[in-house]
């Protein structure tokens, strides 16, 4: 195989695509802002972490040794409010939702990061960084509250393009008259009743939101690292404030590439908890296979907005079924020949198809992770497998066995790059897809088999109107019938769109 094209990624800081060159040859350091753990994660979270999981996987495919850090915010206003409502310890509540988040990530086949730090475990690093910022004259203490002074940050706004004059006082939070500049933000908040607190040089309290990522990224990756990622909603103020405070603590602080994923929209409006128009990951995966959600998200380029729709989730599910049904049929056909010695050349046409397929995948992925194109590129090798399977049933020749074997391996290898290859068996995934299809249809397996039996009787009686009606009713709820010599079976409604 030829060497993949050089990876290019869009840098939010420079507003252009750039060739990726890591600070240390062969190694990549990457930090992605994690969830605030106070509730079940929603599809917007899935969007971000699938996108950066794809990046993580592709960097490893390119041969890089990747140190991937994704944090948990387990100390925050939202967590405290929810814990007080439930009369639960805030750290206990956030720990519970951290676990729920990790379960969702496992379902979505997101590889575990190298480090998953929690704010509550890194108070020493946070307090140390705040102390440095104060010592460098860029923050001030007001009765136990420490504020960052944006006037001391000459490049403030370099990421978002916003000017300080754009920030209207009180737009995001209540005006605090103790601030020297209304845009100044909290690094440390003094303790309040019914809130967790830690001891600090400025009194008991807890960190502001922005400082945690600066402290933890510096702790695990150093002051200067390769990639910092998150959703577009974090560009301002979170990432802007990170840049300002990190540089104030250490002048050498620098992130080479800032990457941001687009929103998930519902009816072309940003999906969010505050608007009440969001779906949790669990709500979706109760009806669709987690890989179907993954494909749905990957069929839009990571920087573009995704508009949520059941129709597009259905298409993604159909695509997933087609992949796994093709692999299953291939496995069944090849099972008697797995141990056979096949000292034959790969047929030229298949060899060319594989070379072209891998080249297209690498070209798409190296061009700022165009997973939308990569997912569609699967169709050609899958069609080739099905075409060869049709011929194979008539004539089992060694070159054909070799062709199917190498096509199967190639498809699985690329599925792994995109996080679509399950640790479960192919047949288990197919059964999971059938179970999800039944959930969506509102029918049980027994009810479907009863309909099939009634249709069989109707066909025997040449009552084709009834037979067609039963087929159409099942099609309407997403179930397709297959009439085979051995009898009629059902599968989730499937096509290759």
From TrEMBL:
Task: Indicate the segments forming the tRNA synthetases class I catalytic domain, all copies.
Answer: 21-316
Q: What is its EC number?
A: 6.1.1.16
Superkingdom in the source lineage: Eukaryota
SUPFAM superfamilies referenced in this protein's UniProt entry, alphabetically: Anticodon-binding domain of a subclass of class I aminoacyl-tRNA synthetases, Nucleotidylyl transferase
UniProt keyword list: Aminoacyl-tRNA synthetase, ATP-binding, Ligase, Metal-binding, Nucleotide-binding, Protein biosynthesis, Zinc
Q: Mention one GO molecular function.
A: metal ion binding
Keyword DNA repair appears in the UniProt entry: no
Database matches in Gene3D superfamilies: Cysteine-tRNA ligase, C-terminal anti-codon recognition domain, HUPs
Q: Which cofactor does it need?
A: Zn(2+)
The UniProt entry's GO biological process terms, in alphabetical order, are: cysteinyl-tRNA aminoacylation
Family annotation (CDD domains): CysRS_core (cd00672)
Pfam families, alphabetically? tRNA-synt_1e
Record keyword Zinc present: yes
Q: List the GO cellular component terms.
A: cytoplasm
- HAMAP family for the chain: Cys_tRNA_synth
The record's NCBIfam families line, in alphabetical order, gives: cysS
Q: Which family does it belong to?
A: Belongs to the class-I aminoacyl-tRNA synthetase family.
Q: What is this protein called?
A: cysteine--tRNA ligase
- Organism for this UniProt entry: Acorus calamus (Sweet flag)
């Amino acid at each position: 195989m030829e060497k993949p094209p050089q990876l290019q990624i869009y840098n939010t800081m420079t507003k252009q695509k750039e060739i990726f060159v890591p600070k240390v040859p062969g190694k990549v350091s990457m930090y992605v802002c994690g969830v605030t753990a106070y509730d079940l994660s929603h599809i917007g979270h899935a969007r971000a972490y699938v996108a950066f999981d794809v990046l993580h996987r592709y960097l490893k495919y390119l041969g890089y040794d990747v140190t991937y850090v994704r944090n948990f915010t387990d100390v925050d206003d939202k967590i405290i409010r929810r814990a007080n409502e439930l009369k639960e310890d805030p750290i206990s509540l956030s720990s519970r939702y951290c676990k729920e988040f990790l379960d969702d990530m496992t379902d979505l086949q997101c590889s575990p990061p190298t480090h998953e730090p929690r704010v509550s475990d890194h108070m020493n690093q946070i307090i140390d960084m705040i102390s440095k910022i104060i010592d460098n004259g860029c923050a001030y203490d007001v009765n136990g509250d420490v504020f960052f002074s944006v006037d001391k940050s000459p490049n403030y706004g370099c990421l978002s393009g916003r000017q300080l004059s754009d920030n209207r006082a009180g737009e995001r939070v209540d005006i605090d008259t103790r601030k020297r500049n209304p845009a100044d933000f909290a690094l440390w908040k003094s303790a309040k009743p019914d809130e967790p607190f830690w001891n600090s040089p400025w009194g008991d309290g807890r960190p502001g939101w922005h400082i945690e990522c600066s402290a933890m990224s510096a702790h695990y990756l150093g002051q200067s690292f390769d990639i910092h990622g998150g959703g577009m909603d974090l560009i301002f103020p979170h990432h802007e404030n990170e840049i300002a405070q990190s540089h104030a603590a250490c002048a050498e602080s620098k992130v080479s590439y800032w990457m941001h994923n687009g929103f998930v929209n519902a009816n072309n409006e940003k999906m969010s908890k505050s608007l009440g128009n969001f779906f949790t990951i669990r709500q979706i995966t109760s009806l669709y296979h987690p890989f179907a959600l993954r494909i749905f998200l990957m069929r839009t380029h990571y920087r573009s907005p995704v508009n949520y729709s059941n129709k597009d989730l259905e298409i993604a599910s159909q695509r997933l079924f087609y992949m796994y049904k093709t692999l299953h049929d291939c496995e069944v056909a090849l099972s008697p020949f797995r141990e056979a010695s096949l000292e034959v050349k790969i047929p030229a046409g298949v060899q060319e198809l594989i070379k072209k397929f891998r080249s297209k995948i690498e070209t798409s992925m190296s061009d700022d992770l165009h997973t939308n194109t990569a997912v569609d590129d699967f169709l050609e090798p899958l069609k080739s497998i099905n075409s060869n399977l049709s011929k194979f049933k008539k004539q089992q020749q060694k070159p054909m066995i070799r062709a199917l074997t190498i096509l199967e391996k190639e498809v699985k290898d690329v599925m792994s790059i995109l996080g679509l290859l399950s640790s479960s068996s192919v047949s288990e995934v197919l059964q999971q897809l059938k179970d999800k299809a039944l959930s969506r249809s509102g029918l049980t397996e027994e009810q479907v088999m009863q309909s099939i039996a009634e249709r069989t009787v109707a066909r025997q009686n040449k009552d084709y109107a009834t037979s067609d009606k039963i087929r159409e009713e099942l099609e309407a709820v997403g179930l397709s019938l297959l009439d085979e010599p051995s009898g009629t079976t059902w599968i989730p409604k499937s096509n290759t769109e």
